[in-house]
Amino acid sequence: MPAFPALNAPSAALLSRLAALLGPAGLLTERSDVEPFCTDWRALYHGHAAAVLRPANTAELAEAVALCAREGVAMVPQGGNTSMVGGATPDASGRAIVICLSRMNRVRRIDPVDQTMEVEAGVTLKAAQDAARDAGLMLPLSISSEGSAQIGGVLATNAGGNNTVRYGNARELVLGLEAVLPDGQVFHGLRRLRKDNTGYALRQLFVGSEGTLGIISTAILQLQPQPRAVEAALCAVADAAAALALFAAFRAQDPALIQAFEYMSGAGMELVTTLVPGASLPLSEPAPAYVLVELATPRPNADLRAALEEVLGAALEDGTVSDAVIAESEGQRLALWKLREEHAEAQRRAGASVKNDVSVPVSHVPELIARASAACAALVPGIRPAPFGHIGDGNIHFNLVQPEGMDPAAFLAMDHRIMDTVADIVRDLDGSFSAEHGVGRLKPYMMPDWRGGAELATMRRIKAAIDPRGVMNPGAIFPPDDLPDSPAHPS
C-alpha cells in the first residue's frame, strides 16, 4: 500500500468555518478545554489537539468532516474516552482535531415489536440500557465502563463484555448503521432488517474499525426481552480448570440460562477487597480463584434459584466448588458484581499494570493462565499476575501488576516485553492478542506478525480505498510505517 500523504494542521480559515458551522458549544480551541480529550483513561498516552469538534447532529458532523478532509487534517473520533489501548487519543503533533459525539445523545425510538432501538452515537451505553429497560426490553451489552462509554465507541471497538457468552459481541447486535465517511459523505444504512442479502454487509466494516474508516453517527440495535428472573452466585474454586468444570455443569443443565460466567484470580480479588472501598468478600475465607455466575431468563414462573442450587449443590459435593454464596437481593447481586467490575480500578490503585486482553479457545484457558503466570514471573520477579474476565467465551484479561516497591515507570518500560511474553503463549494456544479492547495505538506493532500476509494486506486496501488520505484516526490499528505521525509506544 502506498504511503499516505502528510497531514496538515488546521488553518485559521478552517477553524473559522468550523466555528460558524458548529457554534460556540460545538468547537473547543482553548488549551484548558481541549486537554481533557488528549489523555487516555489509563494515562498511557498524552497527546495534543488543535481543537475539539462537538457536532449536534449528523449533518453538522458530515459537513465538519468534509471541511477537515479537504484541508488534509487528521481527525480522531472519540466517544467516552474509555479505550484501554489508546485508540481515541490524538498524537503529540498538535495538528489533529478530536471529534467528540457527546452532543449527539438521543435515543430516537424503540420498536417493541421489532425489539430494536435507534440510538445516536453519543448516547452512553448505560443510558441506552436504561431506555430499553423502561420499554420493557433489554440491551444485553454490558461492560465495566458503560456509564461513560458511548454507543459509537462501543460499536467502533466491537466491545464484548460480561454477557458475550450468551448474546455475542457488539457486532452481533447491530442491524443498521449510519456513518460519516472520511470525505464527509454519509453512509445511510439504518435498516431494521434481519435479512438483507444485497451484497456486502457494509455496516460491519465500521464495527470494530476503531474509527479508521469513518465515524459512526447512529445505529439500530437488536434488543432482547427483559429477564423476568435473575440469580447470581459467587463461587470459590481451586483454579481455572475447576471454573471450567463448573461452566460445563451449568451448560449441561441449560445453556440458555447462562447470562454471564466470570473468572477472577485470588490475587486480583485480594487487590479489590483491600484497595476498593465498600468491596468485601462474602465468603468464609479467601480462595485461589473465584467464579461469578449469573443465570437469567424471560420465561415466566422459571425457578432459577432451584436451577442454581442444583448445580452448585453437586459441585460442592464433588469438590469442584469449595464455597459459594447466592445473592438474596438485588443489592447483594450488585455487590457481587462490584467485586468483578472493580478489578481494573483496584489494579490501577496497586500501581502500574500491563494489560493483556487476550482470547484462546475456552478449553485452553487454564493452560494460558498457568503458563503465562510462570513466564511473566520468570521475566519480572515479584510481578503480580491478576487474570480475570470472561472465561465462558475464552476472553481473559491477563493483567500484571508491578512488583511491590518497583518504580512504575521502570515497570511500564517493559510493557512490550511483557505483552510479547504473554502473546507468545496465546499464539501457541491458537488465540488472539486482542479479544475485545481492539488494537488502538498500543498494539499496532503486533499486527504484521499476527495478521500479516493477505489479512493485513486486505485491511490496508480497504483503508486506502475508503480513506485515501489517511485522515481518519491515524496511528490506530495499522503499524507505524503505514500511517504518518503514529507513535508505536506511549508518549
TrEMBL record:
Keyword Flavoprotein part of the UniProt annotation: yes
InterPro entries on file: FAD-bd_oxidored_4_C, FAD-bd_PCMH, FAD-bd_PCMH-like_sf, FAD-bd_PCMH_sub1, FAD-bd_PCMH_sub2, FAD-linked_Oxase-like_C, FAD-oxidored/transferase_4, Oxid_FAD_bind_N
Biological process per Gene Ontology, one example term: respiratory electron transport chain
Stretches assigned to coiled coil: none
Domain of life: Bacteria
Entry's Gene Ontology molecular function annotations: catalytic activity; FAD binding
Gene3D superfamilies reported in the protein's UniProt record: 3.30.465.10, 3.30.70.2190, 3.30.70.2740, Uridine Diphospho-n-acetylenolpyruvylglucosamine Reductase, domain 2, Vanillyl-alcohol Oxidase, Chain A, domain 4
Keyword Disulfide bond: no
PROSITE patterns noted in UniProt: FAD_PCMH (PS51387)
Domain FAD-binding PCMH-type stretches: 45-226
Keywords: FAD, Flavoprotein
Pfam families reported for this sequence: FAD-oxidase_C, FAD_binding_4
Classification via PANTHER family: BLL6224 PROTEIN, D-2-HYDROXYGLUTARATE DEHYDROGENASE, MITOCHONDRIAL
The family this protein is said to belong to: Belongs to the FAD-binding oxidoreductase/transferase type 4 family.
Name under which the protein is recorded: FAD-binding oxidoreductase
Record lineage: Bacteria, Pseudomonadati, Pseudomonadota, Alphaproteobacteria, Acetobacterales
